[in-house]
Write a structure and sequence with these properties.
The protein is mainly alpha-helical. The chain folds into two domains: 2-215 and 330-400, Alpha Horseshoe (Leucine-rich Repeat Variant), CATH 1.25.10; 216-328. The chain is 62% helix and 4% strand. The protein has 18 helices and four strands. It has helices at 2-5, 36-41, 46-54, 60-76, 80-100, 103-119, 124-143, 148-165, 169-180, 198-212, 222-235, 241-257, 260-268, 273-296, 307-326, 346-359, 363-369, 371-376; strands at 332-336, 339-343, 390-392, 398-400. The strands form two sheets. The chain has a two-stranded antiparallel sheet. A two-stranded antiparallel sheet has the order 3-4. Helix 8 packs parallel to helix 10 and helix 11 (222-235) runs parallel beside helix 14. The longest helix has 24 residues, at 273-296. It is globular, with a radius of gyration of 21 Å.
């Protein structure tokens, strides 16, 4: 865990209230309701074992129901004992669902795989195996068909399992390249021939940005920065509001992680003519983006447009404008359970919002009890309940972790 935690240091966390969060969203990330009855069902492994058995059934509706219950089970409780014994079997059956299932089944199976990775995140080898075993079936599924729910669900899941199990920069870059091909299809052949629709494009940008937050900008070449900035800038002029929001978030993270101001300062003193041209190009791009962001932060809206979406856009681009002009990050104070935490950077905001959407109703539960997420976000709940169950750190070692009281 330690080797990745430095990339995600001092990240604050949201509670279950969505108010005030600024984010683009994938339609694949539907919220799930966890009831007291579900919590009682998953007090042990028997219910999960039955769900796993149901994934071998031929009837698609039976598998879909089982996957839905597994998602509830993983959201409502940390299933360490179950995944220690059944991780690979469950992963293989989810891969089978992605190969042969309906769009709904693929969506559910992708959610299960992502939550499986988050659950085993405390153990680097298992999380890395989930990622590596999923690359081939995911790549094959992404090449076949163009259903929005299917593609978006797989991209969301790929981002999550890479975030958890990507053991090095190369693994993260590999996933980012797969995802970027759905942002700009002409750059690769790992996508369907038709141009992705707005839903897929928005989901792809969101997933790509999420992984970008874990990268060291110094390791990415300037040509990549220029191409992505130019492409995303063009998307700010599109009609779809959620697409504009996703592109705006991506640009904010690029300017933050890429440290473009430092690149510009270093390039200004160079005698290389190509370097001077790069400076002029980047300065022009930044000027264009500033004007776009300024206009979007003051957009009046139009007939039939949701006021909430408009306000979200205006608030987001006001913060981006302040960041680009003055260097101030999106500072926000939020709560999770009884704790108050602060967000100070775009990377922090994107990471929290993405995981919150993916975990749905299980986000708070995992933040209060999931050792991996607590390590990633440097989060320690203050109030604890001594009666909490054991959480496994490895196959033989255990630690008593206490549940916060809300």
């Amino acid at each position: 865990m330690g080797k990745r935690s430095n990339q995600r240091k001092n990240v604050a966390l949201f509670d279950s209230d969505d108010e005030g969060s600024v984010s683009s969203s994938s339609t694949a990330m539907s919220e799930l309701t966890v009831t007291p009855e579900t919590e009682e069902l998953y007090a042990g492994d028997k219910g999960l074992d039955q769900c796993l058995d149901a994934l071998f059934e031929k009837r698609g509706s039976t598998r879909e129901k089982a996957l839905s219950l597994l998602i509830d089970g993983f959201a409502n409780k940390l299933q360490h004992q179950f995944v220690e014994n059944k991780c690979i079997t469950l992963l293989n059956q989810c891969h089978n669902s992605i190969k042969r299932g309906s769009s709904k089944e693929i969506n559910l199976a992708s959610r299960v795989i992502g939550m499986l990775a988050i659950t085993v995140g405390y153990e680097d080898t298992a999380a890395h195996e989930v990622l590596e075993e999923s690359i081939v079936p995911f790549s094959q599924a992404l090449k076949s068909g163009s259903d929005s729910l299917k593609i978006s669900s797989i991209l969301d899941c790929l981002a999550v399992i890479t975030f958890v199990g990507g053991s090095d920069t190369e693994a993260t870059e590999r996933s980012m390249q797969i995802i970027w091909q759905f942002v700009n299809p002409k750059l690769g052949s790992n996508v369907v021939a038709s141009k992705p629709n707005t839903t897929i494009l928005t989901a792809a940008i969101s997933a790509w940005t999420f992984l970008l937050t874990t990268m060291d900008g110094c390791n990415l070449n300037s040509k990549t920065w220029q191409e992505s900035i130019s492409y995303l800038s063009n998307l700010l002029d599109k009609d779809d509001r959620m697409l504009r929001i996703a592109a705006g978030e991506a640009l904010a993270v690029i300017f933050e992680v890429g440290n473009l101001e430092k690149i510009l300062d270093e390039a200004k003193g160079s005698s290389d003519s190509s370097m001077r041209e790069k400076v002029i190009h980047l300065q022009g791009l930044k000027g264009k983006i500033l004007n776009q962001v300024r206009n979007l932060s003051a957009e009046a809206g139009g007939k039939g447009l949701a006021k909430k979406d408009l306000n979200s856009q205006k608030n987001l681009f006001r913060e981006i404008l302040e960041f680009l002009e003055d260097g101030y990050g999106p500072e926000t104070t939020i709560k999770i359970g009884a704790d108050v935490l602060s967000i100070a950077t775009w990377s922090q905001l994107i990471q929290v919002n993405f995981l919150k959407r993916f975990l749905g109703g299980g986000f708070v539960k995992h933040m209060q009890e999931n050792i991996f997420l607590q390590d990633v976000f440097d989060f320690t709940p203050k109030k604890k309940n001594i009666a909490n169950s054991d959480l496994y750190l490895s196959g033989t070692e255990k630690v008593r972790v206490n549940t916060p009281i809300e």
